[in-house]
């Protein structure tokens, strides 16, 4: 060390002054609010909010929607009828066909349509070619199962005038009480109302009406009345709307659908991603700390998005859960049009005697969509897991990814040449930093023409792939949905000649601007587009790619630089002549879906699990691949915001989620970068990414001690891959989130319902609390139960419900293990996850306060679909205090490929068992007895070395069984008695 000289001090001063000066001119990074609509600027949202206000302010309001009692029929688990909407003063009515379907899972589905539009009995304006019906195909894209109709659902015998009651659900314990006039529904479980429809009377289906064109009045004639003047409604946004210089011609006029949905006794609602908001959703009708805008779902490329905001982002899942102590319920609003959701909370009108279970607060929501039918699923829980399961049965579970996809991904915009890629790859190796995938952003293409390589910068993609393959690493290339409008580009020629592009309102190919400049958009609603899209990914078509190339789908909201709100005009037309308005939020998923299908068919006979990342998504996207939270900022606040966003994805059925590690825009400090890696190690999708204008920041760049600390975080991820993979398997079979918030794991602990900054990994009992504040050297972690929690690294014990402080200097990752679990690991550091395929396992047995523990392990080839034919190992490990034994039990099924896979895995063993919280009575013990199924007589009971380490201060006692040499796929027992 040397002391600062006068000259160095002078230079520091100059430097500080210079930085202060520069910061004056650094443009504030902020979303451009003026580019995106507020509710007030979105006609249908404004109309419906105003409607709600009128109702709230009126003392004698009666909703104009009546279920015609005579129309009701009930057959095969489905109630049908017609709702009559009274319009105008003369009492005319509009017929709205209703169905309420009761499903085997205990879910009820309510649909409402408009007869006139169903029959095509309407006239479109401007000679529009658009379909006349309300959009009714969202379920075709989103729903894959769970629609079996309940055989037990039945009309109740108790009759009350003006109501129809249906018993349904498990043991007939659910009831739907349908009130006819005005129409409303109460959903009850165990005699208590959980969810109410139209309780506040905000239900609204804007029916079709002709526009009364106002002819120029002849001299002396009276001015004819406008439609609105007849009905007394505000017509100003019915027939066209202009925003940011773009006019939406709205050929069908007003057609929104809206409904109030109330959750009595529920203080918390979660879900409806994607927003950079709190996990427990905030109120949206003003007041201290609340939003003034509803949560918006209208997939959009929001540049430099702001935090703590209900503004829309890139994806939409219109699925909400309400939670209180002992109960979770959900509603899935299946609508793909622009949607706004107001949330308010009020003092509960519930019985004070039931306080303590029910919250003293009711949550009331108001859902407003621009078009389409009303289609709502009602899920009555009662646990968060039940909700994940039933929602997953409907929309599908997370696709089981390849193993590499859950390891670390290295991305930036851009690795500029194939040499650059190979250099980065070599540097990771030189620094012994594990990684699995390197990514290429848009610059690899020849002038932004997807499926091509820039001939100057990527002359030899094959060689690049070959180098990566040496360590079984992969390459991901970006493919966006906009296709460059240029000469001599076969992709655009084919797109146009085959008629597969999205059309404008006049039926011609829609042209707009994106990265390549003038572009067309592939319309993946069209099955013919998918067939064509598949041809483009074949290895002999997308030359230079191979089996270790995978795909990144970006800009699929779709992002259109010169379009309204950076997307497509709503009056554009898709396959089947559906307006873009109807399908907007589905658009990204259809593109991602086409890419998935294409990856499945790149080469005949080669069937491996695809990997495709998407930015835009809808309910169901979880079946296809992973998502990330888009263009975040290299700021501490964005690191913090990533955690509730990812947790929210998990409880909303799309858990394979991550955020750009390091932050996309800007240059993170070394400390921020390091902390971000430590947090990213707990994202289900773990990728470092950076904007083109940022400095390089691969883990080896920041230098000592940051590089070493980042490497430790990456190694931790790799060490725990067996636990992560098992969590993914659980998600893929039960819908349970991969990372879970406190309320999900402890649904009865009302103190933890708002906790959103710590995460449990699957069912492993691992609880991480990432450091997200600059300069922090400790974190306060919340423990919900009375189990002991042990520090992952040194076994320090934390016991007792409440907050605990964990020291967290830069090199420390706050990670605890909840007593009662067995965590599988692989401890040998490798350069990529594929190289760990035959490595032995370590089991960490974390005893609970009664001295028991259990856990599971799922292992397959990490690559193919052979697991569907039984090629996997699925074990339950159990440590039982009473028998003093650790056992491994098969919980897997069998199939055609089970035996072969088990044979392949027969040499893969458990090489170490660590017992944390080991009982003191083991002191002095030096061996344990191991037995394995099918072992030879001589080896049936072998003695294995055992060491015991006494507790020290707060550090728990622990013990190690050294190399029991038992096969991971077999049944075995380790006897500690
Ligand atoms: C926007 C994406 O969000 C970002 O991750 C990507 O780097 C750029 N597009 C360029 O492709």
From TrEMBL:
Pathway assigned to this chain's UniProt record: Glycan metabolism; N-glycan metabolism
Molecular-function GO terms, alphabetical: alpha-1,4-glucosidase activity; carbohydrate binding
UniProt domain Glycoside hydrolase family 31 N-terminal: residue ranges: 97-342
Residues annotated as signal peptide: 1-30
Annotated DUF5110 domain residues: 842-892
Residue ranges occupied by any Glycoside hydrolase family 31 TIM barrel domain in the UniProt entry: 398-727
Glycoprotein among keywords: yes
Superkingdom of source: Eukaryota
Cell location: Endoplasmic reticulum
Keywords linked to the UniProt accession: Endoplasmic reticulum, Glycoprotein, Glycosidase, Hydrolase, Signal
One Pfam family matching this protein: Gal_mutarotas_2
UniProt xrefs under InterPro entries: DUF5110 (IPR033403), Gal_mutarotase_sf_dom (IPR011013), GH (IPR017853), Glyco_hydro_31_AS (IPR030458), Glyco_hydro_31_C (IPR048395), Glyco_hydro_31_N_dom (IPR025887), Glyco_hydro_31_TIM (IPR000322), Glyco_hydro_b (IPR013780)
UniProt family annotation: Belongs to the glycosyl hydrolase 31 family.
Protein name, entry field: alpha-glucosidase
